[in-house]
């Protein structure tokens, strides 16, 4: 209901010539709940849609000629702000930022183009960002300064009074504030994590800096423990499909403990019968419970090299919800029938009770499917061997159908980190995908598609996984890059189809340009997110898609399980709309934000672990490929996925000119440094605290 009120207020204010009295606006809109009106006004002000004048009157930001923006970087004498509606970043001089700080949402005025770009002034801070920052302590004579993480471009003095005692090289958390009289920015240390040269310590700081909750509340843990001890009653079994005798099994990583999906596959004369059986988290996590509220705020499990921060307490995620082999478990099953060409001919969703027959491991199943398994593994997988073989055949059909449809198949650039007993990174290898990983991926995609089709057909509130069309400007950059690398790129323009980008990826496959094209295509695509409307999925080239298959680690999956449970219980569409319309929208918005937060933290921590590993190899040489170019130099990526920077000044007796896209050319010798070229480098420096790695040419 608040959403409707916000839309009414926004539309009304945009039609007002001057600022409106709140009471006058309230009456004009015919509203009768002043508390809801006040809450909606407060939300709109925080979102930068309206502003309150000094006299308390309400004014549309658009009508006032103001631009809502977020402060995205901060240097000593200036900052940059990014408009919330997109567009060019705006320069804000120190004297014009009104003590706005990195992360603040502000209203900008007097925006003008001075020839070198846009500049503006802060009119008002409408929402303060987090004042807690992390960084590394640096000693300057007798004083300490804080080299802040992120987009702070200068070191901030540490307050001598009230700060914890941080030492040179410590990773710390501090609160920043402007002096009431001097206006000078200072830092007060609140927490000391340990030495910044440790990636594990840096990961601790990254988790806090991104606001990721590490511990569950005691009350939540008690509730989860109680839920985990609840037995499966005869009455509950009676309400479900009894699949305990069926050949159902899981396939996961060797060290996975939260097993949330199992499969059953059978081939017959007409095609295939595929079952995807998902842990019935919604049976245990009820709406409004303590566990549910914490799960909603966490949004997703977060994965680091040395730990997992789960969305659900372990009593649920690794306990009663996990589909462990040989144990009776509650599931939500998707039964699908496919013809001999792999076309989906039918599907149904039903609550079930299962008992997994085998705890499959990806590496082991790959050996079985490739015919190189030892006798021990052959014996382990004998009960489900026919299912595995049928599954592999079906998965290959589905994968081929996806390619014909235009699904983009990215070569994984993810890294696997290997740590010693002290948590120090001692090796990094590229993560590979075998036959079983591809099989499970195809089956999960199909089940997700079926769930989205089902929800759209029923016209029920839902949480869809959406992926919108690429940005035209980024497409232009990709087109220039691909053409410069000698690839066919004529179709890479506005209105591009996913099949065109898929073709580009196939052209680059197996060439030095593969990683670069993979990376640039990913940068070109919009970020996938969640929405309560079926807006389609560009990357998979599907009109309808959702996330149904991982409710232990993703809240949107839990949310749609809850809605589909209502369908299974016979609740009418009208009642489902009333009950879950606002919930589905809220779950989509929160889950999208939590996913971005998790991805950001995971990337930051990976850089620290990569730098920690490369510090052990200072002075050593490695083979790599030029993966990017800027005016200042080039990036080189090693086989193990580690990327470092080589500055143009590191090439003696050279004078390089940059073409603005992918090549530096030495005007003296004619030597070219081009994206995609092989290059041998030496490790010059690796800073764990920032994740920065520097190489120098080794040839």
TrEMBL record:
Keyword Repressor: no
PROSITE patterns registered for this protein in UniProt: S1 (PS50126)
Annotated localization: Cytoplasm
Ranges where the S1 motif domain occurs: 619-698
Gene3D superfamilies (alphabetical): Nucleic acid-binding proteins
Enzyme Commission no: 3.1.13.1
Superkingdom of this protein's organism: Bacteria
Alphabetical GO biological process terms: mRNA catabolic process
GO cellular component, one term: cytosol
GO molecular function ontology, one term from the record: exoribonuclease II activity
Catalytic activity: Exonucleolytic cleavage in the 3'- to 5'-direction to yield nucleoside 5'-phosphates
Pfam hit, one: OB_RNB
Keywords: Cytoplasm, Exonuclease, Hydrolase, Nuclease, RNA-binding
Function (record text): 3'-5' exoribonuclease that releases 5'-nucleoside monophosphates and is involved in maturation of structured RNAs.
Matching PANTHER family: DIS3-LIKE EXONUCLEASE 2, RIBONUCLEASE
Similarity comment text for this entry: Belongs to the RNR ribonuclease family. RNase R subfamily.
Protein name, entry field: Ribonuclease R
Organism: [Clostridium] leptum CAG:27
